[in-house]
Structures are given as structure tokens and as C-alpha cells.
Amino acid sequence: MIAGIKSGKPARRVRRGFLDGRLPKLLVWIVIVQAVLILAGIWGYTAWRLSADRQRTLEAGRQQLRTIVIGLHAHVEAVLSDGLGAATAVATEVSVRGAANPLSDAQVVELLQRQLTGGQYVRALFLATSDRFVRVTRNHQAQTAAHPPQWLQPAFVGDGNGTYVGQTLADPENPSDSVVPVALRKKSASGETVWTGVLLGVQALNHLYESIAIEDGALVLLSETGESLLRVPALTEDQQRKVLNFRQQSLQLTTTLGDEGFVTGVSPATGTQWTYAVRRLAQYRLRVVAGRTVDSILAPWRERSMGVIEAMAGFSVLLVVLTALLQHFISKLERRESQYRTLFNNSAVSVFLMSGDTFLEANATTYKMFRVPEHLPFNGIHPWDISPPRQPDGSESMVSARARIETARSNGQLTFRWTHKRMDTDEPFAAEVSLSSMLIGDSSLMLALVHDLTELERAQLQLQSANDDLEQANGKLAALNADLEHRVEERTTALQEANLRMAFTNQELEAFTASASHDLRSPLGAIAGHAGLLQEELHPVMNDGIRHRIDRIMGAVKRCSDIIDALLSLARLARQELLVEPVDMSALAHVCVDELRQQYPDHTVDCSIRDGMKLHADPRLMKSLLTNLLGNAWKYTSRTSHASVELRYERSGETSVFSVRDNGAGFHLAQAERLFQPFHRLHSAAEFPGVGIGLATVARIVQRYGGKIWVESEPGKGAVFYFTLPAAASSAHEGHYADNRAAV
Predict the structure, then answer these.
(1) Cα separation, 359 vs 1, whole angstroms
(2) Cα–Cα distance measured from residue 347 to residue 342, given in angstroms and rounded to the nearest whole number
(3) Which of 276, 586, 600, 686 is the most exposed place for a label (fewest CB within 10 A)?
(4) Considering only CA atoms, which of 235, 228, 171, 227 is closest in space to residue 204?
(5) What local confidence, expressed as pLDDT, does residue 169 receive?
(6) Which of 303, 297, 304 is nearest to 60 (CA)?
(7) Is 587 within 8 Å of 612 (Cβ atoms)?
(8) What is the pLDDT of residues 561-615, one digit of tens each?
(9) Alpha-carbon distance 106 to 142, whole Å?
(10) Residue in 648, 647, 649, 681 with CA at minimum distance from that of residue 665
(11) Is the pLDDT of residue 186 over 70?
(12) What is the pLDDT of residue 626?
């Protein structure tokens, strides 16, 4: 491998690290696919179980309907057997007597009355031949006729024994109720056809079947012709209109089913899916039907399904959250690995990772330091492979390297000086090596940091040469120092004399300043005192107007005192230390504008101040600067309609330029030569009041901060004052203009 490094032959580069290469992305995809497969499998199994449960629920519902139909079938069969049995007995008696000794109508009535016993379901018994009809009701009302009624005439069509089920009729006892005629056909001894039957009470059966009614279901008695003879619950008029074709459906149902079965379909009455259990009364040509909506049958299944689905949804959310957390953990681990790689490869020193005495990995600096092509591997070689055969002390590099590695493994770390070589030229170079033993997982590894001392040794040689030159220069410097000391003594004496004169001048200036301050403050104190006394004397009759005026007097006194302080501070600008504090020029300008509004309540000005103007300066001087400039603009717009004043800030390269613009009286620039000198005015006091100190104060403050101030103006078009403050550490940022306009 060393030969490969020297010859430049390509070798396979071995990558290390759990998260190297595409492995992190592969792990993320494996986690995602695994989660998707788990969810798909669980949801598929759940869907299969829910589908099977649905089928079981439907089957249980059908069996429940079948049980009800069996009971209903037994009851109807018992009622018909009882009633028709009684009617058949009468028919047998009539047949036995025959034509030789026929029974009279009265005798037939008596026989029918004797047979009409039992429950309320049989409303009447009747007997009919082609030329005779006898009917007896439960309240012993009898009807006789020479021919069968119209509703029974279809029974005489055809020949042979059979059963006849007629259409629903009005109850002969209570016309508001309904009855269903059911008759059996017999042949008398003389061969005459005899029909004997019963009238079943629909309302009585309804009352009975309502007690066993099915929730969201129905009990129906059908004829084999498809006619609905009885239904519980009864249909509404609207539903009855919807089932005009129900008879045809019922007829199909009777022809397609045998004696018993199930049918599922859409109900014409409700338009919803129903399941029916059907059982045939073959002897009487009737079918008993019990039906229920599929939705009501599946209601318990839906409740169970919702519980299962909610549980599965919760599990799915939990699995998704766990998958996301695992993905986040892998991504975080990948980022940490990437950070480690970045630090490892961008380290300014050579870094090796060793197992035993064999290199596993090296950073990019190592390739540069040892001059190894980046496409060649560094793993698999040993420290003595990148060192001369012997060290400067004569020891063999292999033996010495192994001994030092063992010492570092025993002590935990070791730092020593070592001689390496460049791999392209075998040029030796000195280095400082730091070995640190560490445990990564189950592996005991060694971290080696190699500092190239070539530049350090070169610098030491240069430093030694510089020290020699310095010693020579020190001799020359000693002579120069002696001459310099003599000159310093002379200059010191002259400076001390100048300092004495400066101190005397400062004392006189301090005395003058104190005297001026005292002379100015005395009348202000008197005004404040008298105002206070006036406030006490007028307290019993004090009103808001008086209180407001006294407050304004006291405020004016305070403002005058502040102005005196500012002027005194201005006088001491050249010799006092300036405060350096954060100053919001925008907020300070708003304060000045508010004061000007109070001072000139009758003067309306449209004022625009830019937000975000911040710098570091003396807030007292900045307040005086803005007060004078804005007050000057305020004053010279007093005779202008629609007066406006703007405070702006702009960046011009590295310079911050502030400006105060107004649309007031203006002036000729030829008159502005002495504008910033004290007490110099361009207008008379009668036109615009003032003493002429404001702009001079502004100029002194700007000069104190190493700035400059200039003006642009035309008569009748207002003026623009520009100024800079280079010495103020500006922190103003480029922002939007906030028009903060207000009518004053």
C-alpha cells in the first residue's frame, strides 16, 4: 500500500462510519416503508374482519327475521285453521244433507253461529254456492242472498278444489275496519261447488302484531297474487302512492321463492335497502313476510366498527408519530455525523483515527501535510510507514511508535515530538503528536493529532535572527534615548507652563459660567416661587383654566432652566466629556413636535418624521439640536398656509445625512454666509421673533461630532438644513417612511 501511495497507483478508498454514504437515506426509506407495510397490513386485516363481522351481523339479522316469520306463520296458520275448520264443518253438513234434504238459510245461519267461536281475529263465517250466499258476523248479524257477492264471484271461475284469497273489504260490523276473505272450495255429494270461508279482521291482527313489531322493520301478509293484505306498521298515503308497483314485485317474489327464503332489495315505500324473510302458507295461498332495513340491522356492526376504526386510527397516528420521531432521530444523527465530518475534515491539524497501531481514517489536512493524493486511501498503514526509518535520537521508528502507542493506551493520553516524512519526496519534518485513547462502542481506538512544526521552527530561526538585529539596534537606541530625554525635559518644562496658563483660563471661564448661570436662574426661581404662592392663594377658587395657566408657567420655567443647562453644556463642549448613549432620533423628534404644538397651538403644521433613526450620542445635545432646527422650521412657516415640516434620514455611501425641510419663508443663499454665527438673523424680530442663537447652537453641536451643516433655500419656497454626525455611532437602519402625520 505504501508503494501504491508513492507510485500514485489508485487504490480502493474505504469509507467508515455507521452513517456514511447513502446509508442514512436508506434507513429513512426502510423505516417509512416498514411503517407503510405495517399500516397496510393492519388496515387490510381490520377491513377483512369488519367485512366478516358485517356478514355475520346481516346473517344474524336474517335469522332473527326468520324466527319472527316462523312465529307469525304459526299464528296465521292457527287462526285460519280454526276459522276455516269451523266453516268447513258447516259445508260438510250442508253437503251431507244434499239436494234431497237441503238446509234452509236459517238452519245454515244457525250452524254458522254455532261454529263462530274463539278469538277476535275471525270477524265472520260465510258459505256460498252459485245460487246461495249465507254470512254470519261475530255480533250474530246474518246476511243471505240468492247469489254470491261480487267480491266472491272470481272464486267460481275454474273447477276443482282450491283456496281463494280475496281483496281487502270493509268490516261488515265496523265499516271503518278492514277484513280479508279467505275461502276453501269443496264439492258437494251432488257435484255442486261450495265455498266456505272466513273474514279475517285486519285491525285485530294489526293490534296483535304491533306488540311484536320490529324496530325499523315491518310485518306483511301477502297473497300469492302479490296483494298486501296486512302490514304493520301501516303505510302512509305518500308511501302507498310509491308502492303502486309493489304488487308486481310481490308477485315476482312469490314466484321466485319456494316455501321459505330471504330477499334483499330496495323498498318502494321508503327507498332504502331492506332484508325480508318470507314463509309460505301453501294450503291458504298466502305468504308471511318479516322485513327490516339493512341500516338498522347493521347499526350494532357500525358501532363496533367505529370503535375498531377509532382504535386503529389512534394506533395509526401513534405509529406515524413514532415513525416521524425515528426519522427525526436518524436525520439528527445524520446531521451530527455531517457536523463531525465537517469538523474532522476542516481541522487545521492532521487527525488520525487508529485501531491498535493501524490507521483507520485521516482528514483532508493529513493528505495535504503528508502530500498524499486525495483519491488514495490512508487506512491500513502504520505510523512508521509515514516516518523515516530512524528518529533523530537514533531509535527505530517502528519500535518507538509502538512503545509510545502502548504508553498512551495505558495513561489515556500522551504528547511527544516526532519526525515524519513527506510521502512524495521522503523529506523529513518535525511534528508534535498528541495521542488520546477512547472507547467507541465496543472498540478501543486511538485519536492522533499531528501539528506540523516546520513553520514554527522556521519562525524560531527568524526570531533568533531578529533578536540579534535587535541587540544591535538597542545600542543605537540607547544613544538616541539620551538625546531624547534631554529634549523631553525641555518640552515638559514648556508644557507645564502652558498648563498653568490653561488652568487659570479655565478657572476664569468656570467663574463666568457660574455667575451667568446664577444671574439667569435667579429671575426664573422668583417666577417659579411666585407662581407657587399664587397657586396656594388661589387654591380655594382654583378652576381648570387657572390651574392650566399656572402649570404652563411652571413648565416654561422648567424649559428655561433646561435651556440654560443646555447652553452651559454647550459652552463647556470643548472641555467636557460627551455622554454616549442610545438615542432614538425619531422618538426625540416627536417629543420636540409635541412641545412646539403646545407652544404654538394656533399654528397648524403637517409634520412627517421618519421612523427608525437611531444613533449613539449625547441625548441632551441631540434634543437641543432637534429643538432648534424644528423650532426654526415651525417659526418660519407661521405665515404659510398648509405648512409642512419633514425630518428625513438618508445614506450617502458611508455617510448618514439628516435633513429638516420646511415650506416657509425661505431666503437668498447669498445672505447665508453668517447664518450659523451667534445672534445673526436674516429677518427682523418684528417679522419672526427670536434672538439668533439657535442655528449657532446647532452648528456647535454638529462640529462637536465632527460633522458639517449646510442649507438650501429660495425665498417663498422654504429651506432644507442638512447635517451629518460622523462621530455618533449610527445604528439607524434603512426602513420605510412612516408618515406619522397629524394636524396641529
Answers:
(1) 12
(2) 8
(3) 686
(4) 171
(5) 87
(6) 297
(7) no
(8) 766 765 665 566 556 567 889 999 999 999 999 999 998 888 889 999 999 889 9
(9) 9
(10) 681
(11) yes
(12) 93
**The 3-state secondary structure of 298-367, one letter per residue:** CHHHHHHHHHHHHHHHHHHHHHHHHHHHHHHHHHHHHHHHHHHHHHHHHCCCEEEEEECCEEEEECHHHH
Positive or negative: CA dihedral 388, 390, 393, 399: positive
Cell numbers of 736, please? 420605510
Q: What is the pLDDT of residue 722?
A: 93
Please state, in angstroms and rounded to a whole number, the distance separating the CA atoms of residues 657 and 707.
10
Query: CA-based Rg of the chain, rounded to a whole angstrom?
Result: 60
Residue 198 half-sphere exposure, CB side, CA atoms within 13 Å? 28
CB neighbour list of residue 717: distance below 8 Å, 6 or more residues apart: 663, 666
What is the average pLDDT score of the chain?
79
- φ, ψ (nearest 5 deg) of residue 223: -85, 165
Which CA distances in Å does 519 have to 248, 523, 525, 526, 533?
Answer: 124, 7, 10, 12, 22
Query: DSSP for 632-693?
Result: HHHHHTTT-TTEEEEEEEEEETTEEEEEEEE-S----GGG-TTTTSTT--SS-TTTS---S-
DSSP for 354-411 reads EETTEEEEE-HHHHHHHT--TTS--TT--GGGGS-SB-TTS-BHHHHHHHHHHHHHHH
- 669: Cβ contacts below 8 Å, ≥ 6 apart: 711, 712, 713
584 contacts: CB under 8 Å, gap ≥ 6: 613, 614
Strands 217-223 and 228-232: antiparallel
Q: Which helix (H) or strand (E) holds 280?
A: strand 273-281
Nine-digit cell at 367?
A: 493528505
Indicate the SS3 state at residue 20.
Answer: coil
Three-class secondary structure of residue 141 per DSSP = coil
Query: Which cell is 79 given?
Result: 287462526
For the chain, report the end-to-end CA distance as a whole number of angstroms: 89
Which residues 6+ apart lie within 8 Å of 219 measured at CB?
68, 72, 209, 212, 213, 230, 231, 232, 288, 289, 290, 291
What is the phi/psi pair of residue 726, to 5°? -60, -35
Q: What SS3 state is found at 192?
A: coil
Whole-number Cα distances in Å, 539 to 529, 532, 535, 550: 15, 11, 6, 11
Secondary structure in 3-state letters for 453-490: CHHHHHHHHHHHHHHHHHHHHHHHHHHHHHHHHHHHHH
420 bridge partner residues: 429
Higher pLDDT, 227 or 544: 544
pLDDT tens string 382-414: 888 889 999 988 899 899 989 988 998 888 889
Measured between alpha carbons, how far is 538 from 547 in angstroms, rounded to an integer?
A: 9
Distance CA(290)–CA(278), nearest Å, equals 7
Q: Tell me the pairing of strands 643-652 and 605-609.
A: parallel
